[in-house]
């Protein structure tokens, strides 16, 4: 009996030490679990059981106990009964993880949408895609490549794949529980949406990306020389830690801060602009804040992404979630169906031309695909590149919007291809080189 008591006491002590050492992380763990659960349940319309068993089944995150009130549109999570975090839904702005300072009455505005119902076939419309057989496509090889993505599902964890060639769907596949109607969280693919808005503003003659930011707090120190171009290329020289495994700049921003446009703005410079390349989600949210400042009213800011891009190309499923202060979380929180993500890739494949209308200049594509100094050829301007041959068996002209856990929109101009893949793991666990090379080799 004494031995059992000692063992029990030892376990209590070990548990106590573990909680003490990890207590600060509980805020992040329960925050992630709460936000991820609520957004998936309300936006993707998926079951709590599925989200818990899959999306939240991650190291540490799976320790959280979650609850969801569908009627009230509120989700919550705790860890060992501690550090409860709540997530609430706001019409038009999606779900937001809240803290004690949250005041729902302050955020009554929502974006005004113009979801055009058209008669055009996909991708330029939302009607049934045309059935087109290309003699230049080896469909057996293509389907083999698509099937590879869904093989070993416990490892690859692919959810959806869409392949578009010459503006026609040539392959499409969905895992159980997902369909062409299921919105998918793009995570950092949202960064490419934010970048595109700057390309549109420049095409409209409303902004010069080589101009300095004019942020008041930067005007009396070395940060005064930072341009929008530096921010788009992640080469501002500002301090930032992008580490999701601990309490870092990025996890504090996403799961603690009310205004996500501020954290990067408040960081000191550790290098001159363009001297270093440092990937930063804080930079993308700072760009969302700078975008907000281009408009005289908050309503115009909320409307612009939909008016200028999203609704214009019929991405009717897309939703950009906002932080507690009503700023779009440009780093991480864009949702859209696989087909709507495919529309975004198609816009780029056509050099900014959407069914005859030039949404942004062809020069913008050249700009975002130009390798950024010190990025080893893997990064342009809020888009990822294969210019340095990271994927050796895939054309070097490929560029992409990439997101956490393997969300991808690939644009491959030399093959007239757009490939969308979504899932729960990214490379190197998911072998992108084999997947993409199989698709590209199927096209003559």
Structural notes for this entry:
The chain has 444 residues and is of the alpha+beta class. 33% of the residues lie in helices and 17% in strands. The protein has a six-stranded antiparallel beta sheet, sandwiched between helices. α1 crosses α2, α5 packs parallel to α8 and α5 packs across α9.
Q: What is the secondary structure topology, with strand pairs?
A:
Layout: H1 2-43, H2 48-55, E1 64-69, E2 74-79, E3 82-90, E4 94-98, H3 139-150, H4 153-156, E5 158-165, E6 168-174, E7 183-185, H5 189-203, H6 228-232, H7 249-256, H8 281-292, H9 298-310, E8 319-320, E9 334-337, H10 338-349, E10 353-354, E11 357-358, H11 362-368, E12 384-385, E13 399-403, E14 407-412, E15 417-423, H12 432-440
Antiparallel strand pairs: 1-2, 2-3, 3-4, 5-6, 5-15, 7-9, 8-9, 10-11, 12-13, 13-14, 14-15
Summarize this, please?
The protein has 12 helices and 15 strands.
- Kindly estimate the percentage of residues that lie in beta strands according to DSSP: 15-25%
The unreliable regions are none
Main sheet record? 6 strands, antiparallel
Strand order of the largest sheet: 6-5-15-14-13-12
Mean pLDDT across every amino acid position: 95
Number of helical elements: 12
State the helicity in percent bands.
Answer: 25-40%
Beta strands, count: 15
Structural class: alpha+beta
Distance between the termini: 75 Å
- Over all CA atoms, what is the radius of gyration? 22 Å
N-to-C SSE series?
Answer: HHEEEEHHEEEHHHHHEEHEEHEEEEH
What shape does the CA trace take? globular
